[in-house]
Amino acid sequence: MGKALNKFDLTGKTVVITGAAGLLGREHAAALLGIGATVVLTDIGEAALASARLALAREADDARIVTHVMDVSRLESIKHVADQLLVAGLRVDVLVNNAAIDPKVEGDLGVRETSRLENFPLGQWNLQIAVGLTGAFLCSQVFGTAMAQDGKGGVILNIASDLSMFSPDQRLYRKPGLPDDMQPVKPVTYSVIKAGLVGMTKYLATYWVERGVRANALSPGGVFNGQGEDFVQRLSALIPMGRMAQLDEYRSAVQFLCSDASSYLNGQNIVMDGGRSTW
Ligand SMILES: NC(=O)c1ccc[n+]([C@@H]2O[C@H](COP(=O)([O-])OP(=O)(O)OC[C@H]3O[C@@H](n4cnc5c(N)ncnc54)[C@H](O)[C@@H]3O)[C@@H](O)[C@H]2O)c1
Q: Rounded to whole angstroms, how far apart are CA atoms 27 and 24?
C-alpha cells in the first residue's frame, strides 16, 4: 500500500457494528473487512447474523469476522458483549452505530393509518427511539468510555440519514385512491432520531477529544433495493444526480470515516445524497 492508502489501513483494529445483519450493516462490514479490520457483527437475530457472516466470508477472511447477538436498547446486552470481547482480547477501536427500526411506509389499509402523526402509537415512538437513538447513546457510553479510558482513543461513526437534514417529502409515499387522512407517511420518529444522532455526534466529538476519541455522522440518501417503479421515479426526480444510491456506494465513505484517512475530521455530518439537499 502507498503512503496515502496506508491511512485507510485498519489491520489489527476491531470495529463493532450494530444492526450489522441488515442491508447497509453488511455493506459497512464488507467495507471495513476490505481494509483489514476485524469486524464484530452485532444484531438481534442469531440466524440473520449467521447468514451475514456467511455472505461476508465469501469476500474476506473468516477469522476476522466475529458475531454476537446484541440488543442496543438493553444496556446489559451491550455490556455482556463488551465483556466477551475483552475476554477474547479484542480492544474496540471503532464503533459504528447503525441499528435502527426502519418501518417500511406501505399503508396498513386498516381503519386508521398508524404512520400518521395524528395516530402514531406511543409504543412505536418509544420502541423506535429506544433502538435508533437511545441505542446509539448506550453503545457510545459502553464502547466510547472504554476507548477513552485506556488513552488509545477511537472513532465513533453514527449512521444518520439525508432526512437528518430536511423534512421527509411525504408526497413520495402517497398511495393512489386513499383519502388524505389515510395516506401513509414517513413517521415523525425517523426525523427525530436522525437529527438527534447528528446532535449526539457533535456532543461526542468534543466530549472525549483529549482522550483521542472522535465522532462523525454519515447521512446516506435512499438506497435502491427493489422499491416500486413509481416510488423510485418520484424520488429520483428530487435528486440532482437523478437516481437512488447503489447498495455499495457508501463503502468508501465508511472506510474513510472509520480510519486515519479522516484523522482531522471531527463532529461532522457527511451527507451523501446525490445532491438532494442542495436543491
Ligand atoms: N437503506 C437506506 O436507504 C437508508 C438510507 C438512509 C439511512 N439509512 C440508515 O442506515 C441504517 C441501516 O439501514 P438498513 O437499510 O440497513 O436497515 P435494515 O432494517 O436492513 O437494518 C437495520 C438492522 O438493525 C437491526 N435492529 C433492529 N432492532 C435492533 C436492536 N434492538 N438491537 C440491535 N439491532 C437491531 C435489525 O435487525 C436490522 O438488521 C439505519 O440507521 C437506517 O436508518 C438507511
A: 5
Question: Ligand 1 centre from 6 Cα, in Å?
Answer: 30
Question: 170, 187, 177: which is closest to 109 by C-alpha?
Answer: 177
Q: Which of 44, 80, 102, 186 to mutate to test the pocket of ligand 1 (most atoms within 8 A of CB)?
A: 102
Q: Which atom of ligand 1 is nearest to the CA of 163?
A: 6
Hey, CA dihedral for 49, 55, 58, 59, is it positive or negative?
Answer: negative
Summarised one tens digit per residue, pLDDT across range 233-265 is 999 999 999 999 999 999 999 999 999 999 999
Q: Ligand 1, closest atom to CA 102?
A: 19
Edge-to-edge strands of the sheet including 14-17?
A: 65-69, 38-43, 14-17, 92-97, 154-159, 213-220, 269-272
Separation of CA 276 and ligand 1 centre (Å): 21
Q: What percent of the chain has pLDDT over 90?
A: 94
Give the separation between CA 50 and CA 73, rounded to whole angstroms. Answer: 21
**Do 102 and 95 touch, CB atoms closer than 8 A?**
no
pLDDT tens, position by position, 29-82: 999 999 999 999 999 999 999 999 999 999 899 999 999 999 999 999 999 999
CA of 162 to the centre of ligand 1 (A): 14
